[in-house]
Amino acid sequence: MLEGYAPGFSDDALSMMSARTASDRAQFVVRLLRPGQRVLDVGCGPGSITRGFLPYVGEGRVVGLDASPGQFPAESTVDLVAGSVYDLPIASESVDVVFAHALFEHLARPVVALRELNRVLRPGGTLALSTSDWSRARIRPKTANVTAALRGHYLLRRRAGGDPFAGKHIAGLVADAGFGEVSTHARYRPDMSYRELARYVETRLDAALRTSPDDQLASAARSAWAWSHSGDGDFAQCWVELVARK
Questions:
Q1: Is there a contact between 104 and 42 (Cβ–Cβ < 8 Å)?
Q2: H/E segment holding residue 64
Q3: Hey, what domains does the chain have and what are their CATH numbers?
Q4: 25: how many CB neighbours lie within 10 A of its CB?
Q5: What is the mean pLDDT of residues 133-157?
Q6: Nearest C-alpha neighbor of 187 from the set 39, 24, 49, 32
Q7: Rounded to two decimals, what is the model's pTM?
Q8: pLDDT at residue 15 in the model
Q9: Torsion of CA 151, 153, 154, 158, to 10 degrees
Q10: CB 105 within 8 A of CB 162
């Protein structure tokens, strides 16, 4: 299946990713870390979350990995390496904690990826994932234009090989990949304002139309324009935080 990164790497997307921190996005992981551990952050983007793990592992090691190394800063306090989640350049059973934030909703082969994460974890190691679930996002008011625009947004995600509702299924996939002691918790975050979300969706739909005209996306883009020019509202994304053991 075709796989890509639907949000892209425009300035607004990179700014959003760079603003993420471990204290905000990975507090459920931070409290599990111990001095001397080896931590792998898969799909680390610019490494802003990755860096936040370093104070908790002391003389341990923190590595960030991403398939798009163009996001990496020129200098970093942690090791950032290019690589695929489907073929990690990491030795088997060499990592204590594997973390991934906002990755699995973009993967076409999530179980294959999970088995690879299982491979690099030592026995008893920890898997920690934070995965969005758009089906539980809180969006109010959710007008007909909002619903139609989001439908186009979800279509773009699926055409890129991802699953906008991945958080709903992630626990079952983790169990299928051989992990045990799987637990999840839904956390809501105001990732952006209601109007910012409208503009974000509108921008992605417009960009897709420029490269591949499509009646379905054109209709969704018109709805996104109407949404972005409407009044204010509220948006909170649902992030499913999962912890499991090898």
A1: no
A2: strand 61-66
A3: 11-137+161-190+234-245 (3.40.50.150)
A4: 22
A5: 97
A6: 24
A7: 0.91
A8: 60
A9: 130
A10: yes
